[in-house]
């Protein structure tokens, strides 16, 4: 901030809510018991069944399959994702897919993205996965952590610039 005019402008232009760790108890569990644990550690009514997936437990069309036409804002959302993946690819050549989550990853209703779009009415609602293409999954090697951050920053900046043009044009 204050050194790069693009970053300074985008920081001043938008409100940001940064949650470094959204799932504190689940995150702590990954350090001591199960590295790939993704749920919370909350108790449930089912013995030996702990937690809920904090990304798939939002009260918006939970446990449904999306069966209607694409949202009317799909093109504007998709154009933003194209801007982001082009910027990502320009950094280290990593190729990302874009499109709705059901087509690019798997059907997963009731997600954070669904709730933000459908309940909070945020048109620009995206889900982003790690750069791996199937070899390492969520266990990226240490030498991929910084490149992943560099290309994510580039993609985020491109997406924010795109959103700014759409919202304030």
From TrEMBL:
Tell me the cofactors it needs: Zn(2+)
Q: Which GO terms describe its biological process?
A: proteolysis
Superkingdom per UniProt: Eukaryota
Peptidase M14 domain mapped to chain residues: 1-163
- GO CC, one annotated term: extracellular space
Q: Which UniProt keywords apply?
A: Hydrolase, Metalloprotease, Protease, Zinc
Q: Where is the active site?
A: 129
One function term, GO molecular function aspect: metallocarboxypeptidase activity
Quick check: keyword Mitochondrion in the entry? no
Q: Which PANTHER family match?
A: PROTEASE FAMILY M14 CARBOXYPEPTIDASE A,B, SLL0236 PROTEIN
What protein family is recorded? Belongs to the peptidase M14 family.
Q: What is this protein called?
A: Peptidase M14 domain-containing protein
Q: Say which species the protein is native to.
A: Rotaria sordida
């Amino acid at each position: 901030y204050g050194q790069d005019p693009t970053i300074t402008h985008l920081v001043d232009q938008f409100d940001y809510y940064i949650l470094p760790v959204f799932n504190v108890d689940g995150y702590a569990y990954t350090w001591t018991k199960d590295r790939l644990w993704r749920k919370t550690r909350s108790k449930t009514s089912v013995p030996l069944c702990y937690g809920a997936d904090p990304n798939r437990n939002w009260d918006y069309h939970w446990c449904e399959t999306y069966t209607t036409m694409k949202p009317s804002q799909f093109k504007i959302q998709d154009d933003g994702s194209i801007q982001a993946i082009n910027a990502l690819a320009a950094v280290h050549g990593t190729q990302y897919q874009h499109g709705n989550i059901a087509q690019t990853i798997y059907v997963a209703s009731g997600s954070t993205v669904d709730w933000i779009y459908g309940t909070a009415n945020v048109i620009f609602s995206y889900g982003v996965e790690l750069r791996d293409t199937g070899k390492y999954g969520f266990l990226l090697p240490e030498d991929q952590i910084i490149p992943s951050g560099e290309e994510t920053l580039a993609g985020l900046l491109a997406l924010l610039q795109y959103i700014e043009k759409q919202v304030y044009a």
